[in-house]
């Protein structure tokens, strides 16, 4: 980001330009700080968890430098990847999408906790553990689900969010968390952006390792700035001619991607036809974090805040607009993962179930939708039924 150039442009526009920039930065930092409430993570190691408490084991690959006993990780970057298994406990009584962190003595009946952690000694041990977990699943569920977190995440906050997603959405398969070294601090956007580019090789190596596993296919879920990292790694794999790795990836879901449309186009042009990946982009025009990111770049929209599918109509992808939903997130940057209504809609579906239904009865929950097919792109607009009344009549496709 060329901050000096942007400040000059703002100055040319007069005091109002500088005031808008300062206000945008202030809002982003204040809201980011308010949402970054995850405490320092520690392994609780309960003697026994109550039977009502769900347990979500997650395989982890981290590009962060280890701290403490090498099972936990901080913000510093590491030259080598670390491998492990981390089990998150999930309390039984909670609203879908919400994570309650312990502030004192953790209570597994009320809080998300890190119940268990183990370091794995290198790629072979990691691959062996991955294959054992896959072998325990039915054939149709042997999916490897890779999660790449976004900006302003600690190792623990990203881990807990992934556990919440796997549990609430009932995603089948074996979860793999790629933890790149975000600072976990809203003030250090530039640090996180540098970490994205440093982490490209690590994620590409992780996907190479994942392609050796006995999974039927790989699904990648990326959030926010993690979308940039994901697409850069796929781009590198394509440039290296590793079509066998790319062929194992069935779907890439980009949630609120903090990515310019032009950069996205450039990345897809390089990835090209080397793969048959289905790209799904979840967007919201009400995303305040992406609005601030766009202003700082002198842009109108980011990929995750598109106001018109026409901007990507020549690309083969599906855009799912979730602007109509509210969440507890003040930034509205995690609408999909934190909205109980959206969780109710997608829970139990494969690949987030975004294939356009043929009839309204195929949609579950108190929702309405419209489907708009524009050249190669498919736009699916979701809205609560009450909000959509009078605006969307039934379900259909407009050619």
UniProtKB/TrEMBL annotation:
The keyword Hydrolase is assigned to this record: yes
Name assigned to this protein: Alpha/beta hydrolase
Alphabetized UniProt keyword annotations: Hydrolase
Pfam families the record matches: DUF900 (PF05990)
A GO MF label: hydrolase activity
Keyword Translocase: no
PANTHER family, A to Z: ABC TRANSMEMBRANE TYPE-1 DOMAIN-CONTAINING PROTEIN, TRANSMEMBRANE PROTEIN
Gene3D superfamilies xref list: alpha/beta hydrolase
Annotated organism of origin: Glycocaulis abyssi
């Amino acid at each position: 980001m060329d901050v000096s150039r942007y400040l000059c442009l703002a100055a040319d526009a007069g005091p109002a330009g500088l005031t808008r920039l300062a206000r945008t930065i202030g809002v982003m930092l204040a809201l980011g700080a308010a949402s970054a409430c995850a405490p320092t993570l520690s392994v609780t190691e309960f003697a026994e968890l109550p039977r009502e408490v769900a347990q979500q084991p997650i395989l982890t690959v981290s590009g962060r430098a280890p701290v403490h006993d090498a099972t936990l990780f901080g913000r510093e970057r590491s030259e080598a990847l670390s491998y492990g298994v981390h089990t998150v406990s999930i309390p039984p009584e909670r609203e879908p999408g919400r994570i309650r962190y312990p502030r004192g003595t953790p209570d597994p009946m009320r809080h998300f906790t890190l119940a268990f952690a183990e370091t794995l000694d290198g790629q072979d041990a990691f691959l062996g553990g991955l294959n054992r977990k896959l072998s325990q699943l039915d054939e149709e569920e042997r999916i490897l689900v890779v999660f790449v977190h976004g900006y302003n995440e600690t190792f623990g906050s990203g881990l807990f969010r992934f556990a919440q997603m796997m549990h609430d959405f009932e995603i089948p398969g074996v979860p793999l968390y790629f933890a790149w070294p975000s600072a976990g601090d809203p003030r250090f956007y530039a640090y996180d952006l540098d970490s994205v580019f440093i982490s490209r090789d690590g994620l590409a190596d992780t996907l190479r390792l994942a392609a050796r596993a006995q999974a039927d296919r790989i699904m990648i879920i990326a959030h926010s700035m993690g979308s940039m990292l994901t697409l850069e790694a796929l781009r590198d794999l394509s440039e290296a001619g590793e079509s066998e790795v790319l062929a194992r990836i069935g779907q890439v879901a980009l949630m609120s991607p903090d990515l310019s449309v032009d950069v996205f186009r450039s990345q897809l042009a390089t990835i090209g036809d080397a793969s048959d990946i289905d790209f799904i982009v979840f967007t919201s025009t009400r995303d305040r974090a992406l609005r601030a990111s766009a202003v700082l770049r002198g842009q109108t929209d980011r990929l995750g805040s598109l106001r018109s599918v026409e901007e990507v109509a020549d690309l083969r992808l599906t855009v799912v607009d979730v602007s109509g939903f509210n969440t507890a997130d003040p930034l509205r940057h995690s609408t999909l993962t934190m909205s109980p209504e959206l969780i109710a809609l997608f829970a139990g579906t494969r690949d987030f179930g975004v294939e356009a239904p043929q009839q309204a009865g195929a949609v579950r929950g108190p929702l309405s939708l419209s489907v708009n097919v524009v050249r190669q792109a498919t736009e699916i607009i979701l809205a609560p039924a009450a909000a959509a009344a009078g605006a969307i009549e039934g379900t259909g496709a407009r050619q």
